[in-house]
Amino acid sequence: MHRGRGYTLIELLVVLALIALLGSIAMPLAEVTVQREKERELKRALWELRDAIDAYHLARQRMGAEGAASYPPNLEALTQPLPDVRPGGGGVLRVLRQVPRDPFADPLLPAEQSWGLRSYLSESKEPRAGAEVYDVYSLSPARGLNGVPLKEW
């Protein structure tokens, strides 16, 4: 008797079960990888914005502004030109080309509105917006992979 070549139904079901098992293991790993990359983007954006706020503050202090008046009134001000008052300057300074976006925010929001703003007079644990921008934070209610809420980064 001549037996046909090929796979039996049982062999195909076993292979499909193994593929499903491997897929169910790989999906959480892929989700963690995406989360980790978004967190990396968030850290970079926070660093860039905070560095720009500090540069703006320093430039305004050199121009004679004091206290809260030396901080930007909004994030868009970080992209606007400031007079360069350094010796030999005479041009303009720009501290940011564009405001980075919070990677956890709604993609339909403009980048400036994707951040929570903290004024000079508010506490870090209870940030409130004010007449100037002293710090920024993520508006996302999510927690990072380290367990810390993204708002506290």
Automatic annotation (TrEMBL):
<dbReference type="GO" id="GO:0015627">
    <property type="term" value="C:type II protein secretion system complex"/>
</dbReference>
<dbReference type="InterPro" id="IPR012902">
    <property type="entry name" value="N_methyl_site"/>
</dbReference>
<dbReference type="Pfam" id="PF07963">
    <property type="entry name" value="N_methyl"/>
</dbReference>
<dbReference type="InterPro" id="IPR000983">
    <property type="entry name" value="Bac_GSPG_pilin"/>
</dbReference>
<protein>
    <submittedName>
        <fullName>Type II secretion system protein</fullName>
    </submittedName>
</protein>
<dbReference type="GO" id="GO:0015628">
    <property type="term" value="P:protein secretion by the type II secretion system"/>
</dbReference>
<keyword id="KW-0488">Methylation</keyword>
<dbReference type="InterPro" id="IPR045584">
    <property type="entry name" value="Pilin-like"/>
</dbReference>
